[in-house]
Design brief:
Layout (H helix, E strand, L loop, with lengths): L12 H16 L6 H13 L3 E4 L6 H11 L4 E5 L7 H4 E7 L5 E7 L6 E5 L6 H4 L3 H6 L1 E4 L2 E4 L5 E6 L12 H4 L4 E4 L5 H11 L13 H12 L5 H12 L10 H6 E3 L3 H17 L7 H12 L4 E2 L1 H6 L3 H11 L6
Parallel strand pairs: 1-8, 1-9, 2-5, 5-8
Antiparallel strand pairs: 3-4, 6-7, 10-11
Helix pairs in contact: 1-2, 2-12, 10-12, 12-13, 13-15
Length: 335
Protein backbone atom coordinates (compact mmCIF):
# COMPACT_ATOMS: atom_id res chain seq x y z
CA UNK A 1 0.00 0.00 0.00
CA UNK A 2 1.07 3.62 -0.49
CA UNK A 3 0.37 6.66 1.64
CA UNK A 4 -0.73 10.10 0.44
CA UNK A 5 2.89 11.03 -0.31
CA UNK A 6 3.32 8.06 -2.62
CA UNK A 7 5.59 6.21 -0.18
CA UNK A 8 5.31 2.44 0.09
CA UNK A 9 4.13 1.29 3.50
CA UNK A 10 3.55 -2.26 4.70
CA UNK A 11 -0.04 -3.05 5.65
CA UNK A 12 -0.07 -4.41 9.20
CA UNK A 13 -2.94 -5.67 11.35
CA UNK A 14 -2.88 -2.43 13.37
CA UNK A 15 -3.18 -0.29 10.23
CA UNK A 16 -5.93 -2.59 8.92
CA UNK A 17 -7.93 -2.09 12.11
CA UNK A 18 -7.30 1.65 12.23
CA UNK A 19 -8.59 2.15 8.69
CA UNK A 20 -11.63 -0.05 9.35
CA UNK A 21 -12.52 1.86 12.52
CA UNK A 22 -12.10 5.18 10.69
CA UNK A 23 -14.43 4.07 7.88
CA UNK A 24 -17.11 3.04 10.38
CA UNK A 25 -16.73 6.31 12.26
CA UNK A 26 -17.13 8.42 9.13
CA UNK A 27 -20.18 6.48 7.94
CA UNK A 28 -21.77 6.85 11.38
CA UNK A 29 -21.57 10.63 10.98
CA UNK A 30 -24.18 10.32 8.22
CA UNK A 31 -26.12 7.19 9.19
CA UNK A 32 -28.07 7.40 12.45
CA UNK A 33 -28.62 4.28 14.57
CA UNK A 34 -27.50 1.77 11.91
CA UNK A 35 -24.41 0.35 13.61
CA UNK A 36 -25.00 -3.26 12.53
CA UNK A 37 -25.70 -2.20 8.93
CA UNK A 38 -22.56 -0.05 8.77
CA UNK A 39 -20.42 -2.81 10.27
CA UNK A 40 -21.72 -5.51 7.93
CA UNK A 41 -21.27 -3.22 4.93
CA UNK A 42 -17.65 -2.72 5.97
CA UNK A 43 -17.19 -6.49 6.25
CA UNK A 44 -18.59 -6.90 2.73
CA UNK A 45 -16.15 -4.32 1.41
CA UNK A 46 -13.09 -5.85 3.09
CA UNK A 47 -14.10 -9.35 1.98
CA UNK A 48 -14.34 -8.18 -1.63
CA UNK A 49 -18.00 -9.16 -1.95
CA UNK A 50 -21.31 -7.59 -2.92
CA UNK A 51 -24.23 -6.74 -0.65
CA UNK A 52 -28.01 -6.78 -1.04
CA UNK A 53 -29.75 -4.17 1.11
CA UNK A 54 -33.45 -4.55 1.83
CA UNK A 55 -35.66 -1.87 3.28
CA UNK A 56 -38.52 0.45 2.46
CA UNK A 57 -37.72 3.58 0.41
CA UNK A 58 -36.33 6.63 2.16
CA UNK A 59 -34.08 5.01 4.78
CA UNK A 60 -30.82 6.44 3.41
CA UNK A 61 -29.53 3.56 1.31
CA UNK A 62 -28.30 5.82 -1.48
CA UNK A 63 -26.71 8.24 0.96
CA UNK A 64 -24.89 5.37 2.69
CA UNK A 65 -23.27 4.10 -0.51
CA UNK A 66 -22.37 7.57 -1.79
CA UNK A 67 -20.82 8.43 1.57
CA UNK A 68 -18.78 5.22 1.49
CA UNK A 69 -17.41 6.20 -1.92
CA UNK A 70 -16.34 9.59 -0.56
CA UNK A 71 -14.69 8.03 2.49
CA UNK A 72 -12.59 5.57 0.49
CA UNK A 73 -11.90 7.99 -2.41
CA UNK A 74 -13.42 5.72 -5.07
CA UNK A 75 -15.61 6.34 -8.09
CA UNK A 76 -19.35 5.95 -7.60
CA UNK A 77 -22.27 5.39 -9.94
CA UNK A 78 -25.96 4.89 -9.33
CA UNK A 79 -28.27 2.85 -11.53
CA UNK A 80 -31.99 3.35 -10.97
CA UNK A 81 -33.66 0.08 -11.96
CA UNK A 82 -37.00 0.46 -13.70
CA UNK A 83 -39.16 -1.96 -15.73
CA UNK A 84 -37.92 -0.46 -19.03
CA UNK A 85 -34.21 -0.63 -18.17
CA UNK A 86 -32.15 -2.67 -20.65
CA UNK A 87 -28.88 -4.60 -20.09
CA UNK A 88 -26.99 -2.17 -22.35
CA UNK A 89 -28.03 0.66 -20.02
CA UNK A 90 -25.94 -1.03 -17.32
CA UNK A 91 -22.86 -2.48 -18.97
CA UNK A 92 -22.59 -0.22 -22.02
CA UNK A 93 -22.73 -0.82 -25.75
CA UNK A 94 -20.71 -0.56 -28.94
CA UNK A 95 -21.53 2.49 -31.03
CA UNK A 96 -20.45 3.80 -34.45
CA UNK A 97 -18.45 7.01 -34.07
CA UNK A 98 -15.51 9.00 -35.41
CA UNK A 99 -12.12 7.58 -34.41
CA UNK A 100 -8.90 9.48 -33.64
CA UNK A 101 -7.56 8.86 -37.16
CA UNK A 102 -10.57 10.58 -38.70
CA UNK A 103 -12.23 7.40 -39.92
CA UNK A 104 -15.47 6.00 -38.61
CA UNK A 105 -15.57 2.79 -36.62
CA UNK A 106 -17.05 1.04 -33.64
CA UNK A 107 -16.21 2.19 -30.13
CA UNK A 108 -17.28 0.74 -26.81
CA UNK A 109 -19.14 3.23 -24.66
CA UNK A 110 -18.83 2.18 -21.03
CA UNK A 111 -21.94 1.97 -18.89
CA UNK A 112 -22.34 2.92 -15.22
CA UNK A 113 -21.11 -0.51 -14.13
CA UNK A 114 -17.56 0.79 -14.70
CA UNK A 115 -17.09 2.34 -11.25
CA UNK A 116 -15.60 1.18 -7.97
CA UNK A 117 -18.89 1.37 -6.08
CA UNK A 118 -22.07 0.69 -7.99
CA UNK A 119 -25.44 1.30 -6.38
CA UNK A 120 -28.10 -0.81 -8.09
CA UNK A 121 -31.10 1.02 -6.68
CA UNK A 122 -34.39 -0.91 -6.40
CA UNK A 123 -32.92 -3.79 -8.37
CA UNK A 124 -36.08 -5.86 -8.10
CA UNK A 125 -38.11 -3.31 -10.07
CA UNK A 126 -36.42 -4.38 -13.31
CA UNK A 127 -37.20 -7.50 -15.31
CA UNK A 128 -35.06 -10.62 -14.65
CA UNK A 129 -33.26 -10.21 -17.99
CA UNK A 130 -31.91 -6.85 -16.91
CA UNK A 131 -31.13 -8.02 -13.39
CA UNK A 132 -29.01 -10.82 -14.83
CA UNK A 133 -26.82 -8.28 -16.65
CA UNK A 134 -24.99 -7.83 -13.35
CA UNK A 135 -24.12 -11.53 -12.96
CA UNK A 136 -20.79 -11.59 -14.81
CA UNK A 137 -19.68 -8.30 -13.28
CA UNK A 138 -20.44 -9.49 -9.74
CA UNK A 139 -18.82 -12.89 -10.15
CA UNK A 140 -15.89 -12.25 -12.50
CA UNK A 141 -15.30 -8.48 -12.10
CA UNK A 142 -15.58 -8.05 -15.84
CA UNK A 143 -18.20 -7.69 -18.58
CA UNK A 144 -18.37 -9.08 -22.10
CA UNK A 145 -19.95 -7.12 -24.95
CA UNK A 146 -20.06 -8.55 -28.48
CA UNK A 147 -17.42 -11.12 -27.55
CA UNK A 148 -14.98 -8.56 -26.15
CA UNK A 149 -14.14 -8.74 -22.43
CA UNK A 150 -13.66 -5.54 -20.44
CA UNK A 151 -12.08 -5.70 -16.98
CA UNK A 152 -13.58 -3.65 -14.16
CA UNK A 153 -11.47 -1.38 -11.96
CA UNK A 154 -10.57 -2.67 -8.50
CA UNK A 155 -11.90 -2.45 -5.88
CA UNK A 156 -15.33 -3.26 -7.29
CA UNK A 157 -18.43 -3.49 -5.13
CA UNK A 158 -22.09 -3.78 -6.09
CA UNK A 159 -24.55 -2.63 -3.46
CA UNK A 160 -28.04 -3.47 -4.59
CA UNK A 161 -31.13 -2.22 -2.79
CA UNK A 162 -34.46 -3.92 -3.07
CA UNK A 163 -37.91 -3.17 -1.79
CA UNK A 164 -39.80 -5.84 0.15
CA UNK A 165 -41.18 -8.28 -2.39
CA UNK A 166 -44.78 -7.65 -1.36
CA UNK A 167 -44.56 -4.05 -2.58
CA UNK A 168 -46.19 -3.21 -5.91
CA UNK A 169 -44.10 -3.45 -9.09
CA UNK A 170 -41.36 -5.77 -7.81
CA UNK A 171 -39.85 -8.88 -9.39
CA UNK A 172 -38.13 -11.57 -7.31
CA UNK A 173 -34.41 -11.82 -8.00
CA UNK A 174 -33.27 -15.01 -9.78
CA UNK A 175 -31.73 -17.59 -7.45
CA UNK A 176 -28.44 -17.51 -9.36
CA UNK A 177 -28.14 -13.78 -8.81
CA UNK A 178 -29.05 -13.93 -5.13
CA UNK A 179 -26.21 -16.40 -4.68
CA UNK A 180 -23.71 -13.81 -5.98
CA UNK A 181 -24.32 -11.51 -3.03
CA UNK A 182 -21.97 -12.10 -0.12
CA UNK A 183 -24.41 -10.60 2.38
CA UNK A 184 -28.05 -9.65 2.57
CA UNK A 185 -28.55 -6.76 5.01
CA UNK A 186 -31.79 -5.48 6.49
CA UNK A 187 -32.31 -1.76 7.07
CA UNK A 188 -34.66 -1.39 10.04
CA UNK A 189 -37.00 1.54 10.42
CA UNK A 190 -35.51 4.12 12.83
CA UNK A 191 -36.87 4.70 16.31
CA UNK A 192 -38.43 7.99 17.41
CA UNK A 193 -35.15 9.28 18.86
CA UNK A 194 -33.30 8.28 15.69
CA UNK A 195 -35.90 10.04 13.54
CA UNK A 196 -35.38 13.22 15.55
CA UNK A 197 -31.60 12.96 15.16
CA UNK A 198 -31.95 12.37 11.40
CA UNK A 199 -34.08 15.51 11.09
CA UNK A 200 -31.63 17.48 13.23
CA UNK A 201 -28.65 16.49 11.06
CA UNK A 202 -30.29 16.93 7.67
CA UNK A 203 -32.48 20.02 8.02
CA UNK A 204 -29.97 22.46 9.46
CA UNK A 205 -27.86 25.06 7.70
CA UNK A 206 -24.80 22.78 7.68
CA UNK A 207 -25.06 19.18 6.55
CA UNK A 208 -22.74 16.53 8.05
CA UNK A 209 -19.64 15.93 5.97
CA UNK A 210 -17.09 13.13 6.00
CA UNK A 211 -13.35 12.86 5.56
CA UNK A 212 -11.42 10.59 3.23
CA UNK A 213 -9.60 7.96 5.27
CA UNK A 214 -8.12 5.63 2.64
CA UNK A 215 -7.81 4.92 -1.08
CA UNK A 216 -8.90 2.20 -3.46
CA UNK A 217 -5.40 0.74 -3.73
CA UNK A 218 -5.17 0.42 0.06
CA UNK A 219 -8.53 -1.32 0.13
CA UNK A 220 -7.27 -3.85 -2.41
CA UNK A 221 -4.31 -4.51 -0.11
CA UNK A 222 -6.69 -4.96 2.82
CA UNK A 223 -8.75 -7.45 0.82
CA UNK A 224 -5.59 -9.43 0.06
CA UNK A 225 -4.67 -9.46 3.76
CA UNK A 226 -8.15 -10.73 4.60
CA UNK A 227 -7.66 -13.78 2.40
CA UNK A 228 -4.49 -14.72 4.31
CA UNK A 229 -6.30 -15.28 7.63
CA UNK A 230 -5.99 -19.00 8.51
CA UNK A 231 -8.94 -21.23 9.33
CA UNK A 232 -8.50 -24.34 11.49
CA UNK A 233 -9.88 -27.66 10.23
CA UNK A 234 -12.55 -27.96 13.01
CA UNK A 235 -13.79 -24.44 12.21
CA UNK A 236 -13.98 -25.27 8.51
CA UNK A 237 -15.97 -28.41 9.26
CA UNK A 238 -18.32 -26.61 11.65
CA UNK A 239 -19.14 -24.04 8.97
CA UNK A 240 -19.63 -26.83 6.43
CA UNK A 241 -22.04 -28.65 8.77
CA UNK A 242 -24.06 -25.47 9.22
CA UNK A 243 -24.41 -25.08 5.46
CA UNK A 244 -25.22 -28.78 4.97
CA UNK A 245 -27.95 -28.46 7.61
CA UNK A 246 -29.84 -26.06 5.32
CA UNK A 247 -30.59 -28.84 2.82
CA UNK A 248 -34.23 -30.00 3.25
CA UNK A 249 -33.40 -33.52 1.99
CA UNK A 250 -30.39 -34.03 4.29
CA UNK A 251 -29.88 -37.04 6.55
CA UNK A 252 -30.09 -35.12 9.84
CA UNK A 253 -32.31 -32.26 8.78
CA UNK A 254 -33.69 -29.75 11.27
CA UNK A 255 -37.53 -29.92 11.37
CA UNK A 256 -37.98 -26.25 10.46
CA UNK A 257 -35.69 -26.75 7.44
CA UNK A 258 -37.67 -29.73 6.12
CA UNK A 259 -40.94 -27.95 6.73
CA UNK A 260 -40.14 -24.53 5.25
CA UNK A 261 -37.30 -24.71 2.71
CA UNK A 262 -37.40 -25.56 -0.97
CA UNK A 263 -33.64 -25.17 -1.55
CA UNK A 264 -30.81 -24.67 0.93
CA UNK A 265 -27.53 -22.81 0.69
CA UNK A 266 -25.00 -23.63 -2.04
CA UNK A 267 -21.20 -23.92 -1.59
CA UNK A 268 -21.08 -20.16 -2.22
CA UNK A 269 -22.86 -19.84 1.11
CA UNK A 270 -19.95 -21.59 2.80
CA UNK A 271 -17.50 -19.33 0.98
CA UNK A 272 -19.44 -16.26 2.14
CA UNK A 273 -19.32 -17.45 5.76
CA UNK A 274 -15.56 -18.02 5.63
CA UNK A 275 -14.81 -14.70 3.90
CA UNK A 276 -16.97 -12.75 6.34
CA UNK A 277 -15.52 -14.61 9.32
CA UNK A 278 -11.98 -13.77 8.22
CA UNK A 279 -12.80 -10.06 8.26
CA UNK A 280 -14.48 -10.39 11.67
CA UNK A 281 -11.37 -12.11 13.01
CA UNK A 282 -9.11 -9.25 11.92
CA UNK A 283 -11.49 -6.58 13.19
CA UNK A 284 -11.55 -8.26 16.61
CA UNK A 285 -7.75 -8.60 16.75
CA UNK A 286 -7.72 -12.35 16.12
CA UNK A 287 -5.18 -13.89 13.78
CA UNK A 288 -7.34 -16.91 12.98
CA UNK A 289 -11.06 -17.49 12.47
CA UNK A 290 -12.98 -18.58 15.57
CA UNK A 291 -16.29 -20.34 16.10
CA UNK A 292 -17.73 -17.02 17.29
CA UNK A 293 -16.83 -15.44 13.95
CA UNK A 294 -18.68 -18.19 12.09
CA UNK A 295 -21.79 -17.82 14.23
CA UNK A 296 -21.71 -14.02 13.86
CA UNK A 297 -21.72 -13.95 10.06
CA UNK A 298 -24.05 -16.84 9.28
CA UNK A 299 -27.19 -14.69 9.31
CA UNK A 300 -26.23 -12.11 6.63
CA UNK A 301 -24.34 -14.79 4.67
CA UNK A 302 -27.20 -17.30 4.40
CA UNK A 303 -30.55 -15.53 4.85
CA UNK A 304 -30.93 -14.82 1.11
CA UNK A 305 -29.75 -18.30 0.13
CA UNK A 306 -32.54 -20.14 1.95
CA UNK A 307 -35.38 -20.36 -0.56
CA UNK A 308 -38.73 -20.78 1.17
CA UNK A 309 -41.44 -23.07 -0.17
CA UNK A 310 -44.90 -21.73 -0.98
CA UNK A 311 -46.39 -22.55 2.42
CA UNK A 312 -43.57 -20.80 4.27
CA UNK A 313 -43.89 -17.71 2.08
CA UNK A 314 -47.65 -17.60 2.72
CA UNK A 315 -47.06 -17.85 6.47
CA UNK A 316 -44.37 -15.14 6.43
CA UNK A 317 -41.60 -17.38 7.78
CA UNK A 318 -38.36 -15.48 8.50
CA UNK A 319 -35.17 -17.21 7.24
CA UNK A 320 -33.35 -15.85 10.29
CA UNK A 321 -35.54 -18.02 12.52
CA UNK A 322 -34.53 -21.09 10.53
CA UNK A 323 -30.86 -20.14 10.83
CA UNK A 324 -31.32 -19.79 14.60
CA UNK A 325 -32.75 -23.34 14.71
CA UNK A 326 -29.74 -24.61 12.76
CA UNK A 327 -27.29 -22.92 15.13
CA UNK A 328 -29.08 -24.57 18.05
CA UNK A 329 -29.13 -28.02 16.45
CA UNK A 330 -25.60 -28.31 15.07
CA UNK A 331 -23.05 -29.28 17.70
CA UNK A 332 -20.26 -26.77 18.38
CA UNK A 333 -16.79 -28.35 18.27
CA UNK A 334 -14.23 -27.85 21.03
CA UNK A 335 -11.53 -25.73 19.45
Amino acid sequence: MTNENGETKKLTLDIYQQIAVSIEKQLSRVMVGQEILVHDLLVTLLAGGNALLEGVPGLGKTMLVKTLADVIACTFSRIQFTPDLMPADIIGTTILSSLEDGNRGFRFEKGPIFANLVLADEINRAAPRTQSALLEAMQENRVTVFGVTHELTQPFLVLATQNPIEMEGTYPLPEAQLDRFLYKLYIPYPSENELVEIARRTTGAVLPNVERVTTGSTLVSMQKLTKQVPVAEPVFRYAARLVAATQPDGNEVVPSVRRNLRIGASPRGLQAIIWGAKVEALLHNRKAVSIEDIRRVIYPALRHRLLLNFEAQAEGVDPDDIIADILTSVAVPNV
